[in-house]
Amino acid sequence: MSVSFDIQPNPGARSDAEVAEILASPGFGVYFTDHMVSITWTKGQGWHSATVKPYGPLTLDPSAAVLHYGQEIFEGMKAYRHADGSVHLFRPNMNAARFNRSAARMMLPNLPEELFVEAVRQLVQIDARYVPEAAGEHSLYIRPFMIASEAFLGVRAAEEVTFLVIASPVGPYFTEGVKGVDIWITDEWARAGEGGTGNAKCGGNYAASLIAQYEGYEHGCTQVMFIEATGKDRVEELGGMNVFLVSADNELVTPALSGTILDGITRDSILKVGEQQGLTPVERRLSAQEVLDGIADGTFTEAFCCGTAAVISPIAGFKSKKGEWRPQGQAFERTIQIRDGVLDIQYGRAEDSFGWLDKVA
Predict the structure, then answer these.
(1) How confident is the model over 195-211, as pLDDT tens digits?
(2) Ranges of each domain in the chain
(3) Considering the entire predicted model, what is its pTM?
(4) What three-state secondary structure class fits 73?
(5) How are beta strands 323-325 and 311-320 bridged, if at all?
(6) Which of 90, 217, 297, 357 has the fewest Cβ atoms within 10 angstroms?
(7) What gap in Å lies between CA 340 and CA 120, rounded to an integer?
């Protein structure tokens, strides 16, 4: 699909000195680059009006469908600067493919994968100076998203949709080094159910997770792990991350994708890197009781969660209303090994034997 982008440079772009000040302490999702990408879809016309333009507020009619029915999806990905100064995306085609699976579930139009990737490339290229230097774990976080922008209050699939891409320079998730986190287990609240939107990356799933997330905070936990909504037995995922266990016999175990779990790109990368490091990847149904019993008897020696933002977070312990369970491997040796393996590919410190990197600049 050939779409020409109208490039509109931002006349109010920050100076190099201002960008340098931001990159010195970017935080996460606090500052945004000078530009954004916008493409419109209308029924009968398809995708059109592809534009790279100054970052700024959107104008939406108060009756825009997204504001009333939540018809929207998004992705999260990063651009990485290597030691030689080049800038690379990490598996962008997987983000593009998942974006369309989410779109299909939410009755939004299919966005050709090559157009998704090109839109991301256009933004990263024009705002490449916002991609931090390779030192540490700094990167440029990229947020492509699609919203039902049609002004119409009827309940149906929107006939006008807007696709946008914005970007934010971010620092390391762990500012004081990698530390284990505690996870709250809830069987009271659910983020998704069979036939629902669990495997779509839509905002409603994250909104639904917040009540349990804040319950976890009250118990000193950083994240919450959800159990299936019906049988109250199957482990699913965390509020915004997939979960893994490392067994004493070198299995790398994670809940199988069941339609209620987001098929994370970091998740898939970990399964492949872990296998390369000698672990046996296993995707299967896991009951909460099996997880807790396995931690108690040493079957599972380490646990971690993963996502685009943190890559991998070691899990120091699980808590619930029934008690507390802590894996024996509090040095997180295999967890850190896998984490380093993924990061080394992303930042160009190791050979990209999987062909995952896409050079942008």
Answers:
(1) 899 999 999 999 999 99
(2) 6-170, 181-346
(3) 0.96
(4) strand
(5) antiparallel
(6) 297
(7) 26
What does 330-349 look like in DSSP terms, one character per residue?
TT-HHHHHHHHHHHHHHTTS
What does R_g of the chain's alpha carbons equal in angstroms? Answer: 21
| 141 close to 170: Cβ distance less than 8 angstroms | yes
pLDDT per residue over 296-315, tens digit each?
Answer: 999 999 999 999 988 999 99
Gap between the Cα atoms of 234 and 46, Å rounded: 41
The fold of 181-346 is D-amino Acid Aminotransferase; Chain A, domain 2 (3.20.10)
Tokens of 50: 């592809």
Which pLDDT belongs to residue 176?
A: 64
Cα-to-chain-centroid distance, residue 234 = 22
Lookup: tokens for 88 = 């690379």
Q: Identify the band that residue 1 occupies on the pLDDT scale cut at 50, 70 and 90.
A: low
The CATH architecture annotation of domain 6-170 reads: 2-Layer Sandwich (3.30)
Q: What would the two tokens of residue 21 be? A: 């000040």
